[in-house]
What we know:
By secondary structure, the chain is α/β, with parallel strands linked by helices. The chain is built from 29 helices and 26 strands. A seven-stranded parallel β-sheet has the order 3-2-1-4-5-6-7, with helices on both faces. Strands 10-9-11-12-14-13 form a six-stranded parallel β-sheet, sandwiched between helices. Strands 22-21-23-24-26-25 form a six-stranded parallel β-sheet, sandwiched between helices. Strand 13 (418-421), helix 15 and strand 14 (446-452) form a beta-alpha-beta unit. The longest helix is centred in the first third of the chain and has 29 residues, at 103-131. The radius of gyration is 30 Å and the shape is globular. It starts with 9 loop residues before the first strand and ends in an 18-residue tail after the last strand. Residues 1-6 have low confidence and may be disordered.
Amino acid sequence: MHRMTHPQRTWLITGCASGFGARLAQRLIERGERVAATDRSVDLLTRLHSDDPARLLCLAMDVTDPDAIRRAVRTAVAHFGRIDVLVNNAGLGHGGPLEEAKLEDIRRLFDVNIIGMILVTQAVLPHMRNAGRGHIINLSSDSGVVGFPFQGIYTATKHAVEGFSDCLYQEVTPFGIHVSVIQPCGMFKTDMPASTITAARAAMRPDSPYYARAVRMAEALAAAWEQSSDPQEVVDAIIETADANPPPLRRRVGPPERTGLVGLRHRMPHEEFVRFIASVTGDGATRPAMPKGRVDGGRLVVRTLREAGVTHAFTIVGGHNYHLINACREEGIRVIDVRNEMHAAHMADAYARFTRRPALLTVDAAPGLVNAVAGIEVAYEAQVPMIIACAQGSLEGRDIGVMQAIDQVRLMRPITKWQRTCFDVRRLPEYTAAAVRHATTGRPGPAFLDFPLEVMHAVIEEDTVTFPRHYRVTVGPPGDPALVRQALDVIRKARRPLLIVGSGVWWARGEEELRRFVETTGIPVLSRNLARGIIPDDHPLSAGFYPTPAAMADAFLVIGTRLDWTIGYGRFPLFSMDAPVVQVDIHPESIGKTRPIDIGIVGDAAQVLRQLNELVAEGSDWAMEKEWRHIAHGSIGAMRAETAAAADLAARDPARPMHSIQLMQALADCLPRDTIKIVDGGYSAAFAIQYLDACVPGGVTWVGSTGHIGVGLGFAIGAKLAHPDHPVVAIMGDGAFGLCGMEFDTAVRHHLPMIVVIANDAGWGETRDGQRRRWGDAAVIGTNLGPTRYDELARALGGYGERVERPEAIAPAIRRALDSGLPAIVDVRTDPEQRSAAVTGLPWIVE
């Protein structure tokens, strides 16, 4: 199956034989981008591989040889047509006393680390300038800012990289060329630092006056290398920097204690900083604590979030969150700016759904927060963790009509788990940690924190602030062992037991326990919401998403999901009222809420599944019918066939626009198996949920029981940020697209290639059908839209667009959209006269 899920940029990378360069080149190849990988010899590049040879070009390029550089750049341009991103990665390490360095080593280091960088940049610049675009990313080091003993020559080259990059930025920005510097801080587990340490130790003479100090430092560095950082962090930072719009001039990567040194360098007087580094690296028995410096309220909030694992912020920037966004820049949190705050919330929601980590939603006070309310409410109803932080009006203007002043806590109270105002800047880390704790533990959900402007603006000594540690649980509680045993006994005695699992299993990280339970017992599983795809829909024990198998079951084990309208509240006619029901939930108040429960177990879904697996391993007889699993799995195909038959597709006039079912059938046939599909709308969502399989967790993602529409683009952007290696496709109606369409611009600006498939029936199809069914064609009012060409909108915004009229043209259009490497819209004309009972005909749905 063809696969292309990223911008089809051409990268030229130096130093690809090992280290960051090799990892970066291979990662980009796997993303489907085009790579010109270079090093001194092609033989050094044999570890790189690509399923599509046209995407990888290996070139010999010695960065100290101007002729070799010019030949390699000409070859890359001739092969790929352009160079979009240059990564100057080639570099050498060096250690040892400056007094004892050899001239040839000094020259070699400068030739590779800085002169080579300049020469390669010179060769590439004309091609970027003629194209009017490009991005040059130079690899530096914290040594380019901080001077360490016995690294003087290496440090000098990296200082030169920093200065060169600053000057280059000023020269080429007018031509549309971006310049960024990546600063790896501390050691990363690559060959270069290890070999540099070994070479430095071997070169030390015992009679050297520096011997004792240098050897001690080398030994300390060797020990530190064993615990050094994952080089993939640097690779990810390079890719994120290339994807950002606009990209940052500098990006630090590494543990906080090392990235903090770089920040400290800019805050302390120069002499004081140099003396501090000397004391840190000296021979003293005790090391001084790192001076903290001064920080504002925004930095305190964001640093607490970063240490809690928050990596992304979604926003529209305004006067009430300037300091938070600036702190995100300084702390390395990626900022995604959007076109409407509601969709910032949807993106934060989706990112959390796919990563199980909360994101930061920060908006301007009052109107910005009001705009975000719908998105926050969706996350609240779906029980998705989210951190919402923004300032409120100033204390000085409180109650006298200050701009953008409303009671934000009262606004948030019905749609968040926790909401507070912090009035003391020193307590911001404490309050922020509380927001994280409430958002992520128990049943997750959004948490809201605001603070007066004065608190966000306040600047204090960091030494006076305590950052919370170890403030939340990471493992949920098990169930009552006696009740768990009783539950298993109930299921063992049933002839047609049905397992129903939901988002609670996903949040509890219970995938492996669920798979083990299902495959050991052979019980069919109905997967709902975020649990859908843990057991793939095409697995023989999957009963799919639609709850039709429930009507045939004689016992139910419900784990981590609510019995709401989407499953008939667990009542007749879907559930036999005589069938025993076991319900497991972390939230006691949800158990027995909509129907009588025979056994209710309060506990973490993963823990209870583990307990059940332990009991299953003890062995016992099962009464389950042999054919039950086949019947349950077969219900998926039967439901699809029944829906298609009701639409009478076989007798359909080929001249008519296609039915939405035909669109979904074609997508089911052509989308890669690991595609994440976001469904949004009325009929488009109903048919997509029925006909598309979820084969990975979140493989078919729907908004949930709120029935909110217009989430599709926001959810797709969040999904793509969470899973850049998966194809992401949003399937939407044209009505739903109209509620979020300008977020396509957000996807373009942030280089997030995904496909939006619009079922374009020029109206609010499901609602229009309801009017016709009740009162006839004459009653259709307020539900017709124009014949808009959304593919043209895609092209106008800088993406790929294509119009499709016939079912057989869908698969080729999807392939072309994937090939484009751009955010894409495939605008599919569907029948405005189509009728269906896909939703209204289901007996458990109440309109």
